[in-house]
Write a structure and sequence with these properties.
The chain has 258 residues and is α/β, with parallel strands linked by helices. It has 2 domains: 141 residues, 3-Layer(aba) Sandwich (Rossmann fold); 105 residues, 3-Layer(aba) Sandwich (Rossmann fold), CATH 3.40.50.1860. Helix content is 45%, strand content 17%. The protein contains 11 helices and 10 strands. It has a 6-stranded mixed sheet, with helices on both faces. The protein has a 4-stranded parallel sheet with strand order 6-5-7-8, with helices on both faces. Helix 1 packs across helix 11, helix 2 crosses helix 3 and helix 4 runs parallel beside helix 6.
């Protein structure tokens, strides 16, 4: 029997559940701990120091509850805190990156849009990634879209709400070859992004992150089904509670979004 692995994931809220859904598909038979930092959501409007502090608390908590590897299932937290986390903790820590490189490879001369939180867009990590992915080429357009985080947390996935938010930040009638979803919350809205930007390639970093996790921990299917426990800023979400039902709804949606 193969040894079961315990994998922790954290985000400021429910966006990282889209990464959890990908992990459940690719690394079955593991035990998962998901930590939503609801006391401090959203991270995208916080300072670097605040995000680093909250991220350190989350990783310490997950390790104390048995996580042998941690996924920073938040682009903002990765951008602000990943270096400190890797220097502080001994377990493998996998971060998120906006899927700028795949967009560049797929559309080397195309017009590309990156939607992300203000803190991610203002961070050095994203701009370094863009410079490496687009040397001497037309750079992608960066647009902060924080309203989408609020819509996701409120479980407002309807076309009218999402299209209104995109119209306000990006504007209608824009033609792009690729749109990068630079926040895990935005993956819930793939269908709306596809409708708002017809013909554009809609890309995110979830699958690449999970593949990287599998490579680092030597993932293989284990006996038995996966288990998932949810936590909110260090407090366990009780099975059968309304809070757990909410996270299960997010997980169901993340599992069906194409």
């Amino acid at each position: 029997m193969k040894e079961r692995k315990t994998i922790g994931l954290f985000d400021s809220g429910a966006g990282g559940i889209t990464v959890l859904a990908a992990a459940l598909r690719h690394i079955p038979g593991a035990d998962y701990l998901f930590y939503a930092d609801t006391d401090h959501v959203p991270y995208g409007i916080r300072t670097r120091e605040e995000v680093t502090e909250y991220s350190t608390e989350a990783v310490r908590f997950l390790i104390s509850h048995g996580a042998g590897a941690v996924v920073v299932a938040c682009n903002t937290a990765t951008s602000m805190a990943i270096r400190v986390l890797r220097e502080t903790f001994p377990v493998p820590i996998v971060g998120m990156e906006p899927a700028v490189k795949p967009a560049a490879v797929g559309h080397p001369a195309g017009r590309i849009l990156v939607c992300a939180t203000p803190l991610t867009i203002g961070g050095e990590k994203l701009h370094t990634l863009i410079d490496r992915s687009f040397p001497g080429a037309q750079k992608p357009e960066l647009v902060p879209t924080p309203a989408l985080v609020e819509l996701a947390e409120a479980e407002r996935f309807d076309w009218e709400s999402v299209s209104a938010a995109l119209e306000q930040t990006v504007g209608r009638g824009q033609a792009y070859d690729a749109v990068v979803l630079g926040c895990t919350h935005f993956v819930y809205f793939r269908d709306s992004f596809r409708r708002f930007f017809p013909g554009a390639d809609i890309v995110d970093g979830n699958e690449g992150t999970v593949r990287r996790l599998g490579d680092l921990i030597g993932a293989h299917p284990s006996d038995g089904g996966s288990t998932v426990r949810f936590f909110e800023s260090g407090r366990e979400v009780l099975p059968g509670s309304p809070e757990e039902a909410r996270y299960r709804r997010f997980l169901d949606r993340a599992s069906t979004v194409k």
